[in-house]
Structures are given as structure tokens and as C-alpha cells.
Amino acid sequence: MTEWDVRKLRILRTLRDRGTVTATAEALLMTPSAVSQQLTNLAAQLGVPLLEPQGRRVRLTDAAHLVLRHAEAVFAQLERADADLAGYLRGEAGQVRVGAFSTAVSALVVPAVRLLAAQDRPGPQVRVREAEAAEAYALLSAGEVDLALSLAAHAPTARDPRFTLLPLLADPLDVALPAGHPLAGTPALRLADLSREAWIFGGSGPWSQITTAACETAGFVPEQAHSAAGWTAILAMVRAGMGVALVPRMVSASERPREGVVMRVLEADRPVRHVVAAVRQGAERGPATARVLAALQRVAERSVQQN
């Protein structure tokens, strides 16, 4: 395959534009002999004559003009590459793959993407993959996502050399009660007040563990009357009077109930779940990833202020 030397092609293009070796040398801050030597080497590499004498000067051969027609496409592509690279270094280009559990997608990732889109300068392309909180680190470790949103309960320890962890927010858990429940209007409601209730939560996984742990911290083991993983199903059962459930504050407005369910903020024994972002060690310094992390932090801060 023919060897193409971009630097020497630029010298050839400058000679075409300037007309003489001397003018080319002046434009490129080279000596005339260095220009001639570089073009001689380029001709040898390409295997075609590039220059021919014309009086006391030289002119480009037909082969040289053919070479330059192709070289112009190369120069244009390199200019685009330079522009893209400059954008990448400013965090304006590149792709960031985000793995996040369902409520984090709607409450954190989507608002962060909107925030990036609303900024004055372009942002990186964000690709979202919904994943269970415990699954996110496996995806991150395997290189299938670049940034993972998970729960601290499922995070590796801070000493794990594979990941950098960034706390985002402490998400309070409220309790969902049927609208006619005797405790729906009780002042200063505590989680312990619900120890005799039928509970609705997942049969396994993080939400089962969070609900069980919160209730045990409040001094009782919850009686699981029904098992469901999706908020639509859980809240539908609460609305029907089939039980009570803990609901994260960051569950999006579209998933929150409007009629038939009362959301109560727990007082002294209010449980929380901690949401964290994780990247592979060192990746947080990548401009695109850093911009997405900054947007997530800003959204999380707004969420805390609203709550």
C-alpha cells in the first residue's frame, strides 16, 4: 500500500498555492533546500514524479495534481477531526452510556439530559440503559456503560480500586396509605405506627431489602401481603386498600398517585435510601463524563432543595 505522509502533502499543497519553492519555504518557516528534500522524499514514497522543471522554477506534474485532489479530502477530514477533538476536550462531544435504575432514569437522568440540551454549548450524547441497582456495577465493570446510578446499599466499598463513587442524594421514603385509612390523617406519623399493617413490596431485590430494613430499624418485621416490583402496580393495590407501601420521594410525578392514595411524610423514624453515581476509576476526568456528572449533581441538588 502506498505510504501517505500528511506533512509532506501539506508542503506540496503550499507549493501549488504559493508557486515557488522559496515562497513555500517562507510560508512554512523552512529552508528552500528542506522543502525540496521533503518533496523528493514524497515522490519516492508515492512512486510518481511530482515536480518538473519550468525554466528556473518547477511546476507540479499531472500526478501531483491528482494526488492533491485526493489529499484535499484528507485535509478536510482532518479539519473535522480537529474540530471534533476540540469539542471533546470541552465536553461538547463524545458519548456517555448511562446505566440507571427505573426511578433514577425519570428523576435524575432525563432532567440531566434536558439540562445539558438547554446549555449554550453542545453537550455529549447520552445513551440510557435501564438496569437494576445491583446490576449497574456489573455493566460498568464490563465496559457496557460508562456511568452507573445505583443505591449505596449495593455499591462496592470506597476502597474498591475499580470504581470512583460520587454520592448524589439521600432520597426520603414516604408511606403510601389508602385514602380512607384510619392513620391517613394521624399527625406526626411514625413508621412504627404501621407495624400491624399489610405491606406491599417486591419479593426480592433491592426494594424488598430496603423496605424490610427500614421496618426492622423501626422495631418490627413487615408482613408482606402482596408482592410487586412496579410502582403502578404497588400504588394500584394501595388505592384498593390492599396494604401500605414505602415510596421513594424521587418517584416521578407521573408515577405518584392522585386520587385514592395519601402520601405521608414519616417523622422521627423517616427512612432514606442513598443514591450514588459510579464510574470506572479515572473516567471521571473525561470531559464528556465530567459534564454529565455535573448535570446529575445539579439535578440532585435541585431535588434536595424541593424536598
UniProtKB/TrEMBL annotation:
Q: Which domain of life is it from?
A: Bacteria
Transcription regulation among the record's keywords? yes
Annotated ranges, domain HTH lysR-type: 4-61
Q: Print the keywords alphabetically.
A: DNA-binding, Transcription, Transcription regulation
UniProt key word Transcription: yes
Q: SUPFAM superfamilies given for it?
A: Periplasmic binding protein-like II, Winged helix' DNA-binding domain
Q: Which residues form a coiled coil?
A: none
Annotated InterPro entries: LysR_HTH_N, LysR_subst-bd, WH-like_DNA-bd_sf, WH_DNA-bd_sf
Family according to the record: Belongs to the LysR transcriptional regulatory family.
Q: What is the name of this protein?
A: LysR family transcriptional regulator
